[in-house]
Amino acid sequence: MCCAQVDRRSGAWFEAWRGGGTLNIAVLDDFLGVVPSLAAFARIADRSVTVFRDPLTDVDALADRLAPFDALVLSRERTPITARLLDRLPNLRIVSQTGVIPHIDVAACTARGVVVCTSRTGPSYTTAELTWALILASMRFIPQEAAALREGRWQTRFGRGLRGLTLGVFGYGWIGALVASYGRAFDMRVLVWGRAGSIERAHDDGYRTAESAQAFFAEADIVTVHLRMLPETRGIVSAADLARMKPDSLFVNTSRAALVENGALLAALQAGRPGYAALDVFDEEPVTGAHDPLVTMDNVICSPHVGYVTRDRFETMFESAFDQILAFERGAPINVVNPEVLRTGQRD
Fold it and tell me: Which CATH number describes the domain made up of 125-302?
């Protein structure tokens, strides 16, 4: 281990180690097994790097796997980094990824002298594009019609066109703004709802904003959710919100499943309001063996959290995550979420 000679309980561990060697790196949850094939991987290919494809949820098994490593590169929020896990990782010095970090206990990392680095890599055009792929597929029943055609049946149901319908965009950040702009291209009426910042930005960009959440869900023909997963946004879409939607409306979620009140979407679809859903995110991922009931419903179109899973997006994400590892090795960390670790280096 590059840091074995440093007393991790010392308040000066980082200064003592600064630029002291290369890190033993683990890349987690590469479901597709593509990370070593990325051009970005060349940045760290000459180091000791282990790429894990299979996810682990058992803390003991995960701790046994990761105990030898100094650095973890995470793929989004697939593996939670908890205090319990950190207590079993005595060699860990840095956790690196891109995007939001609700799955990382930053306070626990700080208390244990673990640096957390993350960066924003610009709008996720790929997620906005997938949102529209799901909308179009749902409104025209493309998966169902394709399946029927393979079975020898021709034109089994009516679809709906988008022109003139109301697109409800819940959350007007980078992705929400992209989705709204694409709605304009389809000649839809765009309606925005969200927190105060979303309302203000959407209004400045010339979009109509709803008077209330109740009015938003009742008016929209399509509701698409684009919010960050934070403690205050967990369950922000309630059962009452969904019950206000039209019987022929569509609910789309390419953000995070936990933005919807637990169990509310399944119950709402069974009750007929909304009539349809299109989902790229689930309560427990990965979904295998169709164990999530939403996957089996005929009025729901699902994809396996592929909103950001494109080669170009992976190149951008992992290039940034690897650069954070290299900067740490040089003794000049970047994009540090908990810089107090570098000053105190406290590790309990």
Answer: 3.40.50.720
Write the burial class of residue 207 (CB in 10 Å: 0-12 exposed, 13-18 middle, 19+ buried): buried
Identify the DSSP state of 272: T
Active site residues: 256, 285, 305
Q: What's the CATH class of domain 13-122+311-344?
A: alpha beta
- How many whole angstroms separate alpha carbon 323 and alpha carbon 30? 18
What are the residue boundaries of the structural domains of the chain, listed by start? Answer: 13-122+311-344, 125-302
Q: Could you give the 3-state DSSP secondary structure of residue 47?
A: coil
pLDDT tens digit string along 146-168? 999 999 999 999 999 999 999 99
Q: Express each pLDDT in 270-322 by its tens digit.
A: 999 999 999 999 998 889 877 899 999 999 999 999 999 999 999 999 999 99
Task: State whether residue 92 is helix, strand or coil.
Answer: coil
Say if 13-122+311-344 and 125-302 have the same CATH topology. yes
CA 258 from chain centre, in angstroms, equals 11
